[in-house]
Amino acid sequence: MRLLGVSARERVQPAIDRAKPLLDRVRPVLEVVQPAGWVVLVAGVLAWWAGRRFGWFELVVVAIACLVALAIAVAFVIGRSDYRIGLELTKHRVVVGSRAVGRIEVTSTAAHVQLPTEIELPVGASGATFGLPRLAAGETHEELFTVPTARRAVIPVGPVRSVRGDGLGLLRREKRWTETIELFVHPRTVPLHGAVSGFLKDLEGKPTRDLSPSDVSFHALREYAPGDDRRHVHWKTTARTGRLMVRQFEETRRSHLVLVLSTAAADYDDPEEFELAVSVAGSLGLQALREERDVTVLLQGQTVRGQTGGRLLDELTRVEMAARPVRLAELAREVGEQVPDASAAVLLHGATVPPALVHLAGTRLPIDVRSLAVRCVPGATVQRRTLADLTTLDLGKLADLPSAMRRVRT
């Protein structure tokens, strides 16, 4: 049976291959016909057949009316559109609530006058329609538009399409003129200046237990071994003992801040809590980068390395809440695996995470990582608490973050 099946496919495939070029040529024509157009076309054909078959003159009239409607619709979509269309945004990155403005410039490249038509501009899940007036050869028309930025999001703008169609919606002809542009609506952030330094300053250059032949933290002396750098020979001890002795150092580490941002919907009471948590993550990350510290944002199933402030905010703009059951404690466990050189971690969550689970998340962090938990609840007053070795902060608004961070002492 398998051989028969293979043989049947082999017989059919050449016919499919021969029909494909024809289908490719016919497809653009078929796409012009809208659902209403297909209904009118089928109704007209059936009415014509039934009228002739049973001698019902009324059905023949209905068929003629359907075909006339389609013929009139064809007159609206035929013709060639010759334009040069440009789409641009004044800024590709804005902050929530700020103004985002764009411009569409349409220039007629035809040698004759072009009739009015419509221009469509998709913006996110919605869009805008502009009426393009009659344009003479070489004439330019400009349209300005604004993009709503009330929410953090990556908003696709475009592509610009010219549309020809009839008033009944039977036929519709579209032509794409531009590519899609992404507009990043970044989360709100606040400058922290020295507020984060109080949390991280003791970690910069903190020695580890790993020994190194060359670093800034002196540990002990040991006997010379082949391959050691002679610049680290301790000559006084060598002269006293009669053996060549070299300095042994401890490795030090640069501060690496890990922002553990829970995206589990179950960890937040409402979307506003999550937006506050994202803004806190952005503010802490930006300040740490300004202080030339390493920054990593740990999310469910994703790790974002903050190489620059712009890239960090771009990635935070894409973050969305997920219904997956990965909670804060499970995410905290991944810090040691995903960011082994972490020196400080901030756990960000909403009101629905009980203190016991916050404490559990803190215990799952590496033992040598300084930890802080920020509970983001809009409207709450700033409060500092301690759960065993974990410091927690209640934060009600982003503007309170600098003063709240100053309360955290090393």
CATH class of the largest domain: Alpha Beta
The CATH architecture name of the largest domain reads 3-Layer(aba) Sandwich
Which of globular, elongated, flat, extended, rod-shaped describes the shape?
Answer: elongated
The total beta strand count reads 20
The spatial strand order of the largest sheet comes to 16-15-14-17-18-20-19
- CATH-wise, what's the superfamily of the largest domain? von Willebrand factor, type A domain
Measure the end-to-end span. 76 Å
Q: Can you tell me the CATH topology of the largest domain?
A: Rossmann fold
Main sheet properties: 7 strands, mixed
Provide the β-strand percentage band: 25-35%
- Uncertain runs with pLDDT below 50, 5 residues or more? 1-5, 202-219
Number of domains: 4
Q: Name the helicity range.
A: 25-40%
* Helix-strand category: alpha/beta
Supply the key terms.
single chain; 410 residues; alpha/beta; Immunoglobulin-like; 4 domains; seven-stranded mixed beta sheet; four-stranded antiparallel beta sheet; 11 helices; disordered N terminus
Description:
The chain is of the alpha/beta class and 410 residues long. The chain folds into 4 domains: 17-77, no CATH class; 83-186, Sandwich (Immunoglobulin-like); 210-252, no CATH class; 255-406, von Willebrand factor, type A domain (Rossmann fold, 3-Layer(aba) Sandwich). Helices cover 34% and strands 30% of the residues. It contains 11 helices and 20 strands. The chain has helices at 2-32, 35-54, 57-77, 197-200, 235-241, 271-290, 309-318, 328-333, 335-338, 355-363, 401-406, and strands at 83-89, 93-95, 100-108, 117-123, 126-132, 140-147, 153-157, 161-165, 172-176, 181-186, 206-212, 217-223, 245-253, 256-261, 294-299, 302-305, 344-349, 370-376, 383-387, 390-395. Strands 16-15-14-17-18-20-19 form a 7-stranded mixed beta sheet, sandwiched between helices. Strands 5-4-8-9 form a 4-stranded antiparallel beta sheet. Strand 17, helix 10 (355-363) and strand 18 form a beta-alpha-beta unit. Helix 2 (35-54) packs antiparallel against helix 3 and helix 6 (271-290) packs antiparallel against helix 7. The N and C termini lie far apart (76 Å).
